[in-house]
Design a protein that fits this description.
heterodimer, A: mainly beta, 12 strands, about 0% helix, globular, B: four-stranded antiparallel β-sheet, about 50% strand
């Protein structure tokens, strides 16, 4: 079984300050982990993914995430927030279900608010 | 190249009517997913197609929901006898299979009056 918990429903930061969006997961196998971003009235876009290679993953727009197996975490960070980063962020875990299918499980989302 | 497309972009229907939502995946992608996103909620998995295998229907909320994928490409999600609680954005995603990245369409916003 797999699950994902996004620890904060809302995160508010000032422009130019660091961003931390927290995600914990559980998985029976070696999971793949993803972060997606959804801007208002837009589709979901992949930010970055972890698939058992390097534990520190760099994504688009300056975001990165670190896979920590001992902590079952995959937190998303960015050194300096921009106004354009304001959006909904989803952490996703995917492993192999019984029967061989890969059904991703999405977290409930974290809304990032960036103040000028 | 073309991304995932969905039609219609918006659909307003009356309670009790049937609706069909269409998804055109990226050419060559073997995996296709349908999700439902209600206001302020995360994504709820509905159904997954992978190549010629039997679809994983474990997320369909009731027997009023069904989906087909013809020729391994276009998919149609059908909701029969719509209810107001079916109002949501229905998202389609395709992928190269297994645990790879999913590419999402823009969604269909369904409103049931």
């Amino acid at each position: 079984a797999q699950s994902v918990t996004q620890l904060d429903s809302h995160v508010s930061v000032s422009e130019g300050t660091p961003v931390l969006l927290r995600c914990n997961y559980s998985s029976s196998y070696s999971p793949s982990l993803f972060w997606y971003v959804q801007h208002p009235n837009k589709g979901l876009q992949l930010l970055l993914k972890y698939t058992s290679a390097a534990t520190l993953v760099k994504g688009i727009n300056g975001f990165e995430a670190e896979f920590k197996k001992s902590e079952t975490s995959f937190h998303l960070t960015k050194p300096s927030a921009h106004m354009s980063d304001a959006a909904e962020y989803f952490c996703v875990v995917s492993d192999r279900k019984t029967g061989g299918s890969y059904i991703p499980t999405f977290g409930r989302g974290t809304s990032l608010i960036v103040h000028p | 190249g073309a991304g995932v497309s969905q039609s219609p972009s918006n659909k307003v229907t009356e309670k009790g009517k049937d609706v069909e939502l269409r998804c055109d995946p990226i050419s060559g992608h073997t995996a296709l997913y349908w999700y439902r996103q209600s206001l302020g909620q995360g994504l709820e998995f509905l159904i997954y197609f992978q190549g010629n295998s039997a679809p994983d229907k474990s997320g369909l909320p009731s027997d009023r929901f069904s989906a087909e994928r013809t020729g391994g490409s276009v998919s149609t999600l059908t909701i029969q006898r719509t209810q107001q609680e079916d109002s949501a954005v229905y998202l389609c995603a395709s992928g190269a299979g297994r645990s790879n990245e999913q590419f999402f369409g823009p969604g269909t916003r369904l409103t049931v009056l």
